[in-house]
UniProtKB/TrEMBL annotation, chain B:
Key words, A-Z: DNA-binding, Sigma factor, Transcription, Transcription regulation
Keyword presence, Transcription regulation: yes
CDD domains documented for this protein: Sigma70_r4
GO biological process: DNA-templated transcription initiation
Domain RNA polymerase sigma-70 region per the UniProt entry, residue ranges: 27-93
Family annotation (InterPro entries): RNA_pol_sigma-70-like, RNA_pol_sigma-70_dom, RNA_pol_sigma70_ECF_CS, RNA_pol_sigma70_r2, RNA_pol_sigma70_r4_t2, RNA_pol_sigma_r2, RNA_pol_sigma_r3/r4-like, WH-like_DNA-bd_sf
GO molecular function, one term: sigma factor activity
Official protein name in the record: RNA polymerase sigma factor
Amino acid sequence: MGKAGAGTMTMTYERFEYLTDAYGGDLRRWPEAEREAARALRDADPRAAVLLREADGLDALLDAASRPAPSHALREAVIASAAGAGLGAGSKARRRGAIGPLAWLSGAGWAAAACAGVVFGVNLTSHLTADVQADAVLYQASLAGADDTEVLGG
Amino acid sequence: MAKTADPDEELVRRVGQGDPAAIQAMVARKLPRMLMLAQRMLGDATEAEDVAQEAMLRAWRQAPRWAPGQAKFDTWLHRVGLNLCYDRLRRRREIATEAPPDRPDEGPAPDRGLLAMETGARVEAALAKLPERQREAIVLCHYQELGNIEAAGLMNVSVEALESLLSRGRRALRTALADMAPEAVRAANG
């Protein structure tokens, strides 16, 4: 471990060797708190510089392993999965409970509108209770294939 | 717990709001890392793609409810990716196959030259032969470039134990690849 001394951290050769064995020849991969002391020892002790060069050889070998890059198909599949998970364009509107304008052009939308008209007519001719109105709303929801959030808001 | 500075925080917030540009940016930033992690851990391209895709799907689900300050998003995502890899490695052990498939000949090939692909294949084969925990330590610290504390946390070990795994792993790799000249490797790396 580095030792405090004269306001700076120092490192023993043994510690340097131990850390080189673990983290290799690139000091950027070393524990952040010990990098400065390691740089100082590397510059001061030729044996430390040799250790780093030797470790650098293995680092170069490790870097020779291929780095897989995502295929176009994989990227597209992942982006599509975001929509499947409820993200993507329009997700904010859906969360606010808004019904898109196209929904009103769909058959389900017309069915819901017709059903609302029936309910309105019934209201004119009879004393429809609040419970029945609630049932009608749920019925509209089932016709429109929408969830409660879309019909009732929230 | 102290608040953790997270370079991904703003991006995750935008992903959680369904911002398409943020989703694209997150894919560009994290998918290669997840693919690399899984490829190095599993040594199988198809399985690696499956793991990377599943990890990203979990990221999409997590983003809207992500609470900043508890952990870095990248660390969380690595945890997800590693767990998916562990599951697959466990299944492989349960099946108890004999020799791992698709391992290239590991003999030295001085007469064939050290072409980049051959070098890469040798290194990948040597990595695949490492004990699982040693490989994991090297993958997290060397390839994924995680800090030692972060890597040790992901592996549920102390920093000293992580360093021991790294040292043993690197020593085994040095032995396995001893015939390969570093200068030629640097040339292959370009």
